[in-house]
Amino acid sequence: MRASIKPLPGWASWPVSVQALAIQLLSAPLSIALCLVLAAEGNAPGIWVLAWGQGAVAGGLSLSLGLPWWWWLIQLGFWPLLLAGLLGGFSPMLAAGVFLLLLLVYGGGVASRVPLFLSSRKDCTALLTLLPQRPGLRVLDAGAGVGSVLAALSHARPDLDCHGVERAWLPWLCARLRLTLARSGARVARQNLYTLNWGDFDVVYAYLSPAPMADVWRKVCAEMRPGSIFISNSFAVPGVEPDQVIDTHDWHGSRLLIWYR
Fold this sequence. Notes:
By secondary structure, the protein is of the alpha/beta class. The chain has helices at residues 16-40, 47-64, 69-87, 92-106, 109-112, 121-130, 148-156, 169-181, 213-223; strands at residues 138-142, 161-165, 187-189, 203-206, 229-233, 244-247, 255-260.
């Protein structure tokens, strides 16, 4: 979506979470000014109006500045939900625990602008049809999550040399335990996907988000060898048509977008 408000220079390079925080900070004086106007007219707003007003301003700015749609909802509901928790007597430790859990699950996406997306079984089945029948084929899952793809590929094709990288602590730990318990030959490292040389792999699979795809494509062009394959689940490369598209027909309508180098 094209932003209807011209953002600050370098805005697009900021992590979405930082953009959201900046919008909340920008929204606060606007919301306060609106409340002061209402109060001057004899309509002093209550605390719930303040909370929803701040959420509405932040949500509207998020929409105008092109943040992903789920961030509009987060911005809209953050203050009302926080107020409800405080008035409902919820322990601050509960909020701290929820925050810590979210940090362990999604913390790796703060800088990379990549939330946790889980590949379905149908995604894995379709992916297997794309892999050349060559023993020792080196496959990278760039953003391995909880290891769903690595586990499926290594189980169906023990001849594959499967590797994965995941930045967030809890998904990485889940993937590590999953592969260990399954006695899989696949390996997963807690590592930034950009620090690897993708030229070491025959196939790179990524289920990321729209935000980093231009940077990812530059890495593909700079490092992947002729004859290799880059596969993106659901998210397109801006301005670059894929060589092949496969609908996996899973519950959230995934598509595999394939580029042959």
